Amino acid sequence: MNLKDVLSEKRSAILKRWFDVIVETYPADTAVFLKNQKDRFANPVGATISQGIENIFDELLQGGDIGRVSPFLDNIVRIRAVQDFTPSGALTFIFNLKKVIREELESEADKTPILKDLTALESRIDDLALLSFNIYMQCREKLYDIRANEVKSRTFRLLQRANLICDIEDQEQEPDSEDNKLINIKRKEAAQ
Known about the structure:
By secondary structure, this protein is mostly helical.
């Protein structure tokens, strides 16, 4: 029996354990909710994680292009990127899969072909982690861009309310006034 067959047999146990390990990274009351609430509309985070890890696991078993997993990783990583996780905490779920698989395969581990296949699978899981990190960083960069643009917009509105910004027509009437020079400086600062 090869690794793919063994993992296929143990698929539901591995997925259940992997889901539980992921949910344990949340605060206790949130973890209970994520585990117990089965309605995907009442628990979209739990449903997204559950569906995502199933698809990731199935793609790993197929052994094809690791890039095909990207959309499934993206769904989970996006959720964890906006939550209060450190980067390592947000992406640890990928490495937890290796631990879960090893625990499920303890009785099979002394079979040499399975060990060789397991090493290859773990290498693909490491590739998933790297891909996840890229997705995570893209999400965080987008969040920072949104926040920076929001700060710029607020600053500009505050300057407008304080009458420190005038229209271009006003500047043309008094091109050399000290107030216009101050306004131009403030406008440049707000744009940065």
